[in-house]
Description:
- This protein is α+β, with helices and mostly antiparallel strands.
- 24% of the residues lie in helices and 29% in strands.
- Strands 1, 3, 8, 9, 10, 12, 13 and 16 form an eight-stranded antiparallel sheet that branches.
- Strand 26 (508-515) and strand 27 form a beta hairpin.
- Helix 2 packs antiparallel against helix 3, helix 7 (334-347) runs antiparallel to helix 8 (363-380) and helix 8 runs antiparallel to helix 9.
- The longest helix is centred in the N-terminal third of the chain and has 30 residues, at 2-31.
- It is elongated, with a radius of gyration of 37 Å.
- The protein starts with a helix and ends with a strand.
Amino acid sequence: MKSFKLNIKLWSYLAAFLMVFTFAACDDDDNKGGTFDTASLETLITEAETLIETTEEGINAGDQKPGSKAELQSVIDWVRWKIDNAEAQADISDAAVKLQRYIDIYKANVVAVAMPWIQQENDTYIQISDNIKTVLGGAWTIELKCYIVDLNTKGYSNNLFAAEQMGPDSGFAARYFSDGKIQIVTGNSNWVDSGDQAGPGTMKSGEWMDVTMTSDGTHHELFINGAKVAEVDNTHLLAADAPFVIGNSPTWTDRVCNTLVKDFRVWNSVLDESTINANRTASFEGTESGLVCYFPLGSDLGSEFSDVSGNYTASIKGKVEWVAEPPVIVLDKAKLQEAIQELTDFKATIVEGDQDGDYPAGTIAYIDELLADANDALANEGRQSALDDKADALVAAIEVINSMLVADSDGILVDRDVASAIGLRITPNYTPQGDYTVEFNVKVKSFFGYGTGEFFNNGEYGIWVYGYTELTEENVLNTGRLWNFTNAGNGWQGPRAEAQSIKSGIWQHVAIVHDDAARTTTIYVDGVAKGVQEDIGAPNVSGWGEMWLGNGWGKMDGYIKDFRLWDVARDEADLDADIAGSEAGLNVYLPLDRVKGVKFADETGTYQAHMRGISWNVVED
Length: 621
């Protein structure tokens, strides 16, 4: 019986405990959302709802950033749920802290006054969505304001806006150069530009300028600050595979500007000059008739955003920074100053001579050129990257000079595998206008990895050798062909040599001989005629500033020496003959059998040769 009584007492205690727990649980349920102090939290809710009601979202400075209202409303909704489901006063306090934090975020989430600064690095631009090309396939007008930080070019040009591609050559661009010249260029399987119509000084740095281009499909005009400065006639073939971008080319992406841009507009018609001039100071809502695309670009919207209409998007690529005003560039010149001093100290150690191991004659003059160029950059260059690149080049020049001491040489090496190897630059350019002979010795390292390589080129005539990019028996057997390409006024002509005319790993002699009276040009390999072009004149006078050995439009891979350019048609028996260097009709002569440093004169004293990233093929003892 005692044991039974103890169990009864135990159950009594358990029943009492369960009753207390149940009552407490019921009390907690009754407290949810009903008995806590929510006055401060309700005040915050009212403040948040008022902000949503009284502010506007948009893409202009001062607007709330798109999406910020929805974000704050979602927090309000959560807070109201929390009030209804709170289990303690601490939950109300936590909700108030969270809502206050998001109110502060909302107040700060205002579109800031800012403009995109497109900085001069490859692959940097603002890309507009491809649906803009539907408009660009018809008649159109593009308007843009730009503030050029500096006019310097990184690549061939600075493209303000472009949609251009190769193969076929198509699209268009508005591009300016370091002298302030600006062109429009259009493609329709060939490129046509407006030349020098808008000459040097048209574009200026350090001020806002209005740039407008119009196109009706065949006639294109360019306006600067409301005045027409250039025009070109050429049927516009839309670039099918390249996007439209601002601040660069979509294809040659080193043609990048250093500029701020704003007020980008595209109209679906050709605006006249008076309208273009009036638009410079007009305000736009984006709903105007004919205005199909409008990016004010006056506020920081991040890396991807829509235009006013919501129909087009812009994507920021590369180094683009949103800034409130044009930058004040503060340059660090210390690195270049140190490099100048290092090269100056090195120059003091140079003793020139003609014995093996000496510094070649002309080394000091070459260093003086480098120093003069560096000091000019120190005084006038506006880009930090260009100053630093110049400093690196000066320091590297010391190593290059030390690698080119006097010694016997078996020609020069243009190594295609070395990206910095360009070729031998010969100045000034010369184009024979009557009889001529070009001859040299060449040894190809390899035919693999390129379609064509060039032994010689002056822009209007030269010699290609054909290689291959895909390893097949057919491709290998088809290598070693030559073409003496010549523009003599009737398009590209010139004799060709059959496959296997040039072989790899051996020295061979190549010559082209033009007889102007007979109007023939013959190509020779090792003294044997391999091809002839009839009814051909002398090449057009080149517009290039130089001639090249080992490059031009395509780099060779191998060695070249004993280059001669004659103003006479040499007899077949006289090709590759021993010469003294003073023969009549010998215009350019570069034996390349003795190391002469980085920059040196040819044997006639008329021409300067410059080793651009290439090396001497020094004869080992």
